């Protein structure tokens, strides 16, 4: 038996679909910009990974920030002490809320003039702030899937693809020297597929996970 699917005016057979699914992957590009001398994090230092969020509704996803934090704090000898974002924001309330968070190192320097804030930073052994801005978006969709229910049962038939793009930039602030240490940009692109032969089967490129892994590895290299 041979199944046929209609996609953008072309008939696709099952072997072709299997070939496409085997190619379901993503590619990542990393760019690094370093400002000033090399940075060195020591065993007693900690970092905090924070997401940029704006009142206009643009938000860096919480799960991506958590993913980068977990990746930095794993890896045996190369692990970095990471303060969880929510714990840090709660401890410094309201200074790191969306409307009050410092937008650059200069504002951070002014903020630390507050003795209570300086004491909190000291308690955390904080050395680096890592601000991440960006998002994951679907950029293109093709194909279609239709589902129906009849006397003999139901099912879905069709084939759909979509392109995902994850683009994130990490700004690394050196708290000890009150300067921008550098920036790291991670851009991951991939195509996901969903064939439906009775039941839809999503084959995801997982671009956000790829961007998280690549960015965390580059941050570790940058700091160590």
Give the tags.
224 residues; alpha/beta; Double Stranded RNA Binding Domain; two-stranded antiparallel ribbon; 6 helices; 42% strand; elongated; disordered N terminus
Any overview of this molecule?
- With 224 residues, the protein is α/β, with parallel strands linked by helices.
- The chain has one domain (4-32, 42-223): Double Stranded RNA Binding Domain, CATH 3.30.160.
- It has six helices and eight strands.
- The protein has helices spanning 14-22, 62-72, 85-91, 105-111, 115-124, 207-223; strands spanning 4-7, 10-13, 26-34, 46-51, 81-83, 126-150, 153-174, 179-200.
- It is elongated and about 75 Å long.
- The chain starts with a strand and ends with a helix.
Question: Can you lay out the helices and strands and say which pair or pack?
Answer:
Elements: E1 4-7, E2 10-13, H1 14-22, E3 26-34, E4 46-51, H2 62-72, E5 81-83, H3 85-91, H4 105-111, H5 115-124, E6 126-150, E7 153-174, E8 179-200, H6 207-223
Parallel strand pairs: 4-5, 4-6
Antiparallel strand pairs: 1-2, 3-8, 6-7, 7-8
Helix pairs in contact: 2-6
What's the oligomerization state?
A: single chain
Helix content: 25-40%
What percentage of the residues does DSSP assign to strands (E)?
Answer: 35-45%
**Total domain units:** 1
Unreliable segments of 5+ consecutive residues: 1-21
Q: Could you give the order of strands across the largest sheet?
A: 3-8-7-6-4-5
State the shape: elongated
Number of strands: 8
CATH class: Alpha Beta
Looking at CATH, which topology would you report?
A: Double Stranded RNA Binding Domain
What does the average pLDDT come to? Answer: 85
C-alpha-based Rg, rounded: 23 Å
């Amino acid at each position: 038996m041979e199944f046929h699917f209609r996609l953008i005016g072309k008939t696709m057979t099952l072997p072709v679909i299997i070939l496409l699914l085997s190619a379901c992957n993503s590619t990542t590009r990393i760019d690094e910009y370093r400002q000033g001398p090399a940075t060195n994090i020591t065993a007693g230092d900690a970092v905090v990974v924070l997401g940029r969020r704006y009142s206009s509704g643009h938000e860096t996803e919480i799960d991506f920030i958590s993913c980068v934090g977990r990746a930095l704090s794993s890896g045996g000898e190369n692990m970095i002490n990471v303060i969880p974002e929510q714990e840090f924001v709660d401890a410094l309330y309201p200074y790191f809320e969306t409307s009050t968070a410092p937008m650059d190192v200069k504002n951070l320097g002014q903020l630390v003039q507050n003795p209570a804030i300086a004491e909190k930073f000291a308690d955390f052994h904080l050395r680096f702030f890592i601000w991440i801005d960006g998002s994951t978006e679907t950029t293109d969709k093709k194909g279609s899937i239709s589902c129906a229910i009849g006397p003999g049962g139901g099912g879905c038939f069709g084939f759909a693809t979509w392109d995902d793009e994850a683009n994130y930039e990490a700004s690394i602030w050196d708290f000890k020297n009150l300067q921008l240490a550098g920036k790291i940009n991670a851009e991951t692109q991939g195509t996901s597929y969903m064939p439906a032969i009775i039941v839809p089967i999503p084959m995801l490129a997982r671009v956000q996970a790829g961007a998280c892994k690549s960015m965390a590895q580059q941050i570790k290299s940058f700091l160590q």
